[in-house]
Amino acid sequence: MCSSDESPDCRQHWNYWIVNHFRIKYWPLTAVALLLTAGKNCEIRAQDLKSATGIPERAIEALYKGESDGTLMLDYTNNDYCDYCLLYENGESYVLKPGKTTVFISKAVTDSGSENESPSYIFKGMSAGDGYNDRIYALPVKNGDQTRWESDSTEMHATMRFSIEPGDTVYATRYGTACMTDDPSLLTVCHNDGTFAAYLSMSANFISPGETVFPGKPVGTSGGRGLSLSFFFLDERKLGNPSADTYPYTHFIPVFSTSEGDVCPEEYRNYVAVTDEALVTGEMSGKERKSYLKSGTSRQHTDAAEGNIRITWLGDPVPEKDKTRIFSLIEHEIGYYTGLGLDGNLTLPIYTFHDKKDAEAFLEETTGRTYDLRHIGGLYLPTQQITVITGYDPKHSDENFRVICHEISHHFIRSISGPHIPTWLNEGLARYFESCSVDRKGNVRHSLSEAEKGRLKSAFMIGEIDIESFLDSDHSDFMQHQRTNDGISYTLAHAIAAILVEKDHDSIVGSLIHSSQGEKCSRLMENLYPGGIKGLETDLLELIGY
Alpha-carbon distance 387 to 215, whole Å? Predict the structure, then answer.
C-alpha cells in the first residue's frame, strides 16, 4: 500500500459506539436484553464514512445474564458479516465474530463498596496488522476503461474520489463480503485480511448484506460527483487508551492493477483498468473459482494467460477461437524473448477495435494526438505499454494474427531493452514473428516471401544496399529509406533478423539489444558475427537465393 492517514480534520464527526456501562449490585436470574443502536446522520456527505465505520442498527445485540453466585455474563450476537472488536478500558478485549460470543464481565469495587463494570467500546473490524499491503486491487471501472482520482474535499486524506460519469456502473475492487449498513446506497465490503472498502456517494447499490463480491463485479451506479472510495482497517496501535474521542482507523491507498502494471496511482493522472482473470479469482475458494470459470463470466471482455505472461483483451470482443490460435502463434515468440531476458510476469494489454474510427478516438483520448489509421493495422504505444489493433475483422483472421504478433514483439523487446534498441532490429524481429506459422503438430515455420526475396535481389543487383550504413541508421534514416526506396527498410530488416534467429545468434541479438546509446551496430556486428559484415552479407545472399 502507498500511504495511510488518520484524517484528523474530520475526527470530530466520527460517531463511536459505546457499550452502556451500569452500576449493578444485584443481578436477576432473568435476562435483560440490551440493543446497541446507531445514531442518526445529520449531514449525509460528511457522515458517509462515519456510517461505513459505525455499527448499523441491529448489527450487535447484547444479552446480560447473571448467575446465583454473582457471576456476570454477557452474550453478544453479531448479526453482521464482519468482525467487531470489543475493548474494555481495563485492557480486556474480545473478538465478536459473526454469531454468538459470551463475555465474562470484570467488575471493580469502588470506595463506596459497590461493584462497577469497566467501560467498554465496540469498533468495527479487527486489526489487519502489516498484512494489509499484500494485495493488488482493481480500479472501480470496467476492464479497459480509464479513470483518475483526487482527494474527496469533504473527507480529505481518507477518501479517493474517482472520476466516473453519473449513473455509470461501479465495479468491485477486491474480493470480500458486503456488511450491514443503515444507508441503502452505501456499500461496505470486508476483505479476508481485515481491511474494508467503503463505496460512498453511489446513486444505487446492487449488493445485499452478506453477498460476495469480487474484482470486476458490478456493485452499483455512480452518484453526481463520481465515486468516493475509502480503504481502511482497524489499527490496534491506536487503541491503547480507547475513549469516545478515539478514531482507531488507518486509511490507505492500495496498489491497483493497470495497463502500466501494478501501481500506486498518482492523483489527477489517468489510468486504464486491467481486471484480469488472475485478479478476479485470486482470493476465491476452489469451489468458487470452478463455478466462476464454468459460468463463462471470465471470458466476457476480460483476459487470458499464456504461462506467466498475461494477455488482457480490451476494447471490442475477440472470438475465443482467435485467442486460442494467437496463443499458439506467440508461444514461440515468448520462448525466444524469454531467452533474452523477458520478465515472465509481464502483462500484455491488447485493445482491439472493429471500427477504425473508434480506435482513432481512443488513441486521441489516450495520447492527446490525432491519428490517421486508414493504412495502419496496429501500433504499439511504448509510453502507455499497450498494443492497439485497428479494424479487427474476425473474417480476416490471418491478417489480424500477423498484426498482433508484430506489435507484441515490440512490447516484448522494449520490456527487455528499454527505448534505445536499434530501429532495424526492433522492426526486423517484429516482421520475423509476424511471418511465422504453426502447423497442427505445433511445429513453427517461418518464411521470407518470394516478393521480399525478389525485392532484395533487385536491390543488391543495382547496388542499393549498404549493410554497414543500414545497421547504423537511426529511426529517421530507417523510415526515410523505407518511404523513398519502395519499402526496402522493413524487408532488409526482416531478412537480417531471420538470419540472426534461425542461425541461433542469440548472443549477438542480446548484445545489440543492450548496446549503449550511440554505439555503432556495425562495429558490434563486425566483431561478433562469423566473418563480420561480409559474412552477414554472404548469408543474406544465400537466404534470398542470389
Answer: 23
Q: 3-state SS of 433-498? A: HHCEEECCCCCEEECCCHHHHHHHHHHHHCCCCCHHHHHCCCHHHHHHHHHHCCCHHHHHHHHHHH
H-state helical runs in 143-259? none
CATH class entry, domain 4-130: mainly beta
Closest to 529 (Cα-Cα) out of 507, 546, 514, 502: 507
List pLDDT tens digits, range 89-121.
777 888 999 999 888 764 544 444 445 566 788
Following CA atoms 530, 531, 534, 535 in sequence, which dihedral angle do they give, to the nearest 10 degrees?
-50
C-alpha R_g of the chain: 31
SS3 annotation, 114-125:
CEEECCEEEEEC
The answer to whether domain 136-230+254-289 has CATH 3.20.20.70 is no
Instruction: Provide the residue ranges of all domains of the chain, joining segments of one domain with +.
Output: 4-130, 136-230+254-289, 301-407, 446-544
pLDDT digits (tens, 9 = 90+) for 329-372: 788 888 888 888 887 667 778 888 888 998 998 899 888 899 99
Q: Phi/psi at 310 (nearest 5 deg)?
A: -100, 125
10 Å CB burial of residue 233 (0-12, 13-18, 19+) is buried
Supply the pTM of this predicted model: 0.50
